[in-house]
Amino acid sequence: MAITLTDEVVRNAVDTATLTRRLRGLRRKGQLRALLLVAPLMLFLLTIFVLPIGMLLTRSVDNSDVARTLPSTVAALASWNLEAVPDETIYAAFAADLKASPRDDVAEVAKRLNYYETGMRSMLLKTARTIRNAEAPYKDAFIAIDEQWGTPRYWLILKQAIPELTDFYLLAALDMSRNEAGAIAGIAPENAVHVDVLLRTFAVSASVTLLCLLLGYPLAALIARSKGAVANTLLILVLLPFWTSLLVRTSAWVVLLQSRGVVNSALAWLGIINPSQPLELIYNRIGVLIAMTHILLPFMVLPIYSVMKSIPPVYLRAASSLGAPPLSAFWRIYLPMSMPGVSAGGLLVFILALGYYITPALVGGPRDQMVSYYIAYYSNQVTNWGMAAALSAILLVAVLILYAIYNRVVGIDRLRIG
Amino acid sequence: MNHSLSFTRLFPVLLWLAGGAVVLFLIAPIIAIVPLSFNAEPFFTYPMPGLSLRWYEEFFSSDVWQLALKNSIIVAVCATLLSTALGTLAAIGLSRPDCPFRATLTAILISPMIVPVIVSAVGIYYAFAAVGLLNSLTGLVFAHTAIGAPFVVITVTATLASFDHNLMRAAASLGATPVEAVLRIMLPIIAPGVVSGALFAFVTSFDEVVIALFIAGSEERTLPRQMWSGVRETLSPTIAAVATLLILFSTLFLATIQWLQRRAERQKLM
Fold first, then answer.
1. Cα distance between residue B150 and residue A352, in whole Å
2. Interface confidence (ipTM) of the complex
3. Where does the record place a coiled coil (chain B) (predicted)?
């Protein structure tokens, strides 16, 4: 009896083991099937989207140009003491590098050095052109081309520009730089533009968020209180602009707000303003705030409305039957209960506003451009990938932090559209 | 007491005034631009001196605008097909009960929606320049597929959340292969989600301008890209005509979405 029991236990144990193994195998197969379904889009996004952005962001710390173009100079400068004028070996190495490198690469290095010291671009290009025909001793040849090569200062800048990784662009994006001793310090106020741009981006986004909240809250409350066809009509009137092309809405504001546009002519017709002195409503901050608020308002109304819809009206009735004046019932019951919608809408509008480019570019003046404009400027107009990448990194980090907060407060899976 | 009573009566009136003003602010610019597209003169003021269809004529007879329209349609249709196919597959995978790393995978799949479009545009421009995909409709289709797919993933995943996976088991026990079960059981049920995801992807591509600004040359200009130039350089009432046509489009889209949602709700009730 005891033996059979053991036998059975053993047999059961074996069965359980195979069963567990088979189950595990099945589960793994199921997991694999799920991953296979996700794989095509995942691979597509990794190649078309994630990898490009990764490549861009590495440009913000990448400095391999100098080291790749001037390998012997890098090696020779390693033993230099930073103070005395370099000796002939260093000049010879630099000359050899310049002779061996294609013109385009030298031009890249020259552009790069110019970020450190204005004027170094033309100095290096001139040197590279002339040194090709020069012969030893190179020290004299360099000084003959430009006597500044005879001072340690420019060699110091060159040495500073050598490391393959640099915090130069990220610091520059925050209006900082390293001085000759390597310590981080702010740059001269007249050259500092980026902090202003970042602060302006935050200020515009915050103002737009506040305006959207002021306008969106009562509208959401009105829709939530309305019933049936009225509520539905109001909702459609919110969704129609939401679905209308961004450029249509922006162009509409350009048409309306121009000095000879609809708003000014209507105000003149009503006798509110003098027709010869139209209000300046566009290509300034007012235009940006009006157009951006208009475009982002639905993103505020919809989340607040969906939360308000779920607040039972009996709560308010209970409050007033207990003697609460309407304002106090609103302040102590309705407002706190609608807060999840307010924070969801507020965060969403703020995040979307941070990255706006088209609307400020079309209706704003030069003093209203946000960080997006400068990212476009650095990549498109002056081809300074390092700066474009550094500003992108800062914008991206700000947005990701805010989304992490959004995820904590609202839940990213509730990122509903329409 | 009297004071608060009058406030209670006054409150709905105040709310209607405030809400109504906001609705006016939302709708008025869209409404106001429509009549201006029929203006006989190239001004943007009311009252209009006369009516004319000349701006529509200009739009339909201009090679530049027609090329832009054609490009927009081609890119949007291709990007929609691609992102709907890839996005629906991914959403089905993500909503399988045994899908591992679901949170991480979802985060990566919807990242194009979260990353500011200027960062995406510059990144794609930088990478496409290296592989020669700039100034091509193919490059534009790829980029628009990437930013449209998350909308498909989100809407289809949301539809699948209420999908009863026992139906798939029932189909399998009745002898259906997994592919048959998906095609004949799952797809018809999640169709409204797939279609509204596809509409989102289409509109996203059709309205996208920042990426087009970076990676499309003058031959690959899309409608929004052409409008951008129009608003920037010489603002002509042709813009108002294009805007009116696009408003007509968005109204149609909104109607379709509403109809789909109502259909989906009816289905849920049954």
1. 16
2. 0.92
3. none
